[in-house]
């Protein structure tokens, strides 16, 4: 496993992190009951094995299975808290400062910890009204109080549409962004990553493997493609090739997956030159 710096937080994070959505949400990408005995055992063993392999960035949210993902992480990471960084999220739409504070207490309880390393506003895209609500309506005040109280270390925000984060980065109050950026969704390359680099904001990737869409598309076009290409490796290698990315949080619930992704982090000889890949300009010479 290789490590990168999460922007201005200075945290040295594993370049592949653990994404908590498939662990807690029923039937995420495949049939999965997060409350069943066998899946609980498998999820906990997978997370603990990830820690042993050197994964140290774990991302979750209360909405991943109504707190189930947080419970599983809390169970798996109990006694290992000092070896990992925990990133959580809160809802913010229509939520007051007190609502946000109350919700974080629930997350801390389920995660069996008294602090989060990163807390993020959980969202897809942001209108000017959303920006005003978060920064002036109470949610950001809650985060700053949590920071003063030692319950969170750094402030972040997540977006499926990364360009809508620009006003937030302009405030200089955000340490981390979590964005959708992968083989299919490319726009962040030019519309947010340069700004994040300029502001020294940590960049976490959600859906780094396109939540499996790229793989399904390729298999639909060529059903025997897995005999020739490791589609999953192509997708992970693509995002790890970008030096602007701090960590790619991959949804994993199996030991074989954390092992494969750990090996792909070390396979640096496969990295791509993304400047070359994105170069569409006609050159004079
Ligand atoms: N902030 C937000 O609004 C937001 C939105 C979406 C996601 N996220 C975060 O981003 C994380 C990642 O996104 P995601 O889980 O949707 O998608 P993803 O990481 O792009 O893809 C996850 C899928 O890849 C498969 N996979 C992982 N490692 C594999 C391997 N070595 N070989 C083959 N398949 C492998 C998993 O399979 P299995 O299904 O078989 O385990 C899973 O279905 C989430 O868990 C969550 O923490 C945040």
Could you explain the architecture of this structure?
The chain has helices spanning 21-24, 37-53, 68-77, 97-110, 128-136, 139-148, 166-171, 188-191, 193-199, 213-221, 231-240, 255-266, 274-278, and strands at residues 3-5, 12-14, 16-19, 57-59, 85-90, 116-121, 152-159, 176-180, 202-206, 247-251. With 285 residues, it is of the alpha/beta class. The strands form 2 sheets. Strands 3-4-5-6-7-8-9-10 form an 8-stranded parallel beta barrel, surrounded by 5 helices. A two-stranded antiparallel ribbon has the order 1-2. Helix 4 crosses helix 6 (139-148). NADP nicotinamide-adenine-dinucleotide phosphate is lined by residues 19-22, 29-30, 59, 122, 158, 178, 206-212, 232, 249-254, 257, 260-261. NADP nicotinamide-adenine-dinucleotide phosphate (NAP) binds next to helix 1, strand 10 and helix 12.
Can you identify the CATH class?
Alpha Beta
Rg to the nearest angstrom? 19 Å
Tell me, what's the shape?
Answer: globular
Helix content: 40-55%
Short structural summary:
By secondary structure, this protein is α/β, with parallel strands linked by helices.
Protein topology:
Elements: E1 3-5, E2 12-14, E3 16-19, H1 21-24, H2 37-53, E4 57-59, H3 68-77, E5 85-90, H4 97-110, E6 116-121, H5 128-136, H6 139-148, E7 152-159, H7 166-171, E8 176-180, H8 188-191, H9 193-199, E9 202-206, H10 213-221, H11 231-240, E10 247-251, H12 255-266, H13 274-278
Parallel strand pairs: 3-4, 3-10, 4-5, 5-6, 6-7, 7-8, 8-9, 9-10
Antiparallel strand pairs: 1-2
Helix pairs in contact: 2-3, 2-12, 4-6
